[in-house]
User: Fold this.
Amino acid sequence: MDVVVAGAGVFGATAAWELARRGHRVRLLDPGPIPYPTAASTDISKIVRLEYGPDEFYTELAERAIDGWRRWNRDFGDELFHETGVLFLSRSPVAPGTFEGDSLAVLERRGHRAERLTSSDVARRFPAWRSELYEGGIFNPVGGWVESGRAVARIVREAANAGVEVHDRREIDEACLPEADATVFALGAWTPFVLPRTAAFFRAHAMPVFHLRPENPAAFAAERFPVFGADISNTGYYGFPAHPRSGVVKIANHGAGRAAHPASSRDVTEAETTALRAFLREAFPSLAGAPIMASRTCLYSDTRDGHFWIAPDPEQPDQIFATGDSGHGFKFAPVLGGIIADAVEGKVVPRFRWRPEVDPPRSEEAARHQTG
Assistant:
C-alpha cells in the first residue's frame, strides 16, 4: 500500500519503519525538526518498566519491548536503553490491592526476581531517600530508562534507511495531506485539535517535568538511586538517576495533570514548582535545594480509559489512528510499530480498538489509578 504517516513521534516513527519493512511505500510527515522540541517523545529520558499493578497484559507487552530495547542496543551499537533497574516505594504496606503489591505478584508469577524491600533495606541500599516515610517497596533489576530524544532520532534514521520518505518541514493539516491508500494519524496531544471530530475521545493534559542539578551527582548515581516511583499511584512522582552526561536528575509527575492546548506555553506553573519542592523536602532532603536547570510540561494524549487507541475509524477505514499514549507509551517503542502496522493491515489489538462507548473517564493504567 501507499501509506502516509502524519507525526514523527514514537508512535509515528516506529509505524513508518515497520510499514516500510513490510514492503509498503511510506511517507512520514512532521513539522520538524525531528525529534520535535515540544513533543511528548522528546526529552532526555523515559521510564521502561514491567510494573503495571494487576494488569498482566501490559507486563507481557513490556517484556517484549524490553527484549526489543536490548536488541536495538546491540544492533545500533549505541546504549539508548540503560537497564538500571526500577524501584517503587510505598507509604503503605506492599500488599494485595496496592500498585506495588499487585505488580510484585504479577512479576513473581511470570518468573521475575523482583525484591520486596523493607524501610531498613531502603535506608541501607538507597541512602538519598528519607526511608522512614516508606513502609516498603519493590526493586526489579529488569527495566530502567531510555534516552528518548536520541531514540526517536535513531528510529527515524532507520526508517529512512528502510525507504521511508521523511518530510520534516510539513505542516499537518487533514485538508491538504497527500492522497494515499491509508493515512496513519500519530499526532499525540494534537489529535483532538487537528481532528476536532475526535475531541470526545482524547484530552491533552500537561504534566510537569523538572531537571535538577544535585550538589553531589555521585549520590544520585544509578546503583544507589535507580529509576523510581514514589508511592506513584497516590503522588504521581517518578524520576531518574543522574544523567551520565549532564549529571542532572529528572523528576516528573504521572498524575492528573491539567488541561492544555499543544500550542500554549510549556512552562510549568509556580504551584507545580512549589509542589515539587515540597515533595523533595519529604522524599530526598539532599535534593530539596538543588537548582532547577530546566523545566517544561509534557503533554499526554489521554484516552478515557488510559489505553492506547490504535485502530481505523469505522466511518473512514482508510484513516488509522495511532495515539492515546496516556503517558505510558514510549517504553513500548520496539513493539508499537508492529501493532500499528497490523492495524493498517486490518488486525487490531482488542484493547486498543475504536471505543467511543467508554464513559465516564477513568484511567485503568494502574500507576495513575488514584491520581488519573
In short: The chain has a mean pLDDT of 95. Residues 92 and 135 are 6 Å apart (CA to CA). The first strand starts at residue 2 and ends at 6. The longest helix spans residues 56-76.
